[in-house]
Structure prediction request, 85 residues.
Amino acid sequence: MAWNNLTTVDLIVGKNLKVFIKNPVKSIVKEVNPVNNSTRYHYVRSGENLTSIAKKNGISLNKIRSLNPKINPNRLRVGQKIRIR
Prediction:
């Protein structure tokens, strides 16, 4: 814990840690980007459709449809909650 200036054993996503290797064979450095798996929602505004929502959020229309299987794209309502991640 001292090498990483940690005061508890709790870890934070995205935090870099120093690791001691007793007999290293060779140095390997790999940077890993944490995946943000948090669920996100969009609330439908007047004039929006699934295609426009997908474009605004940088995802495919098929992805929105797979995340929202019970939603009829022809019957969107203003204020309706759409899962986008």
Summary: Helices lie at 50-57, 61-67.
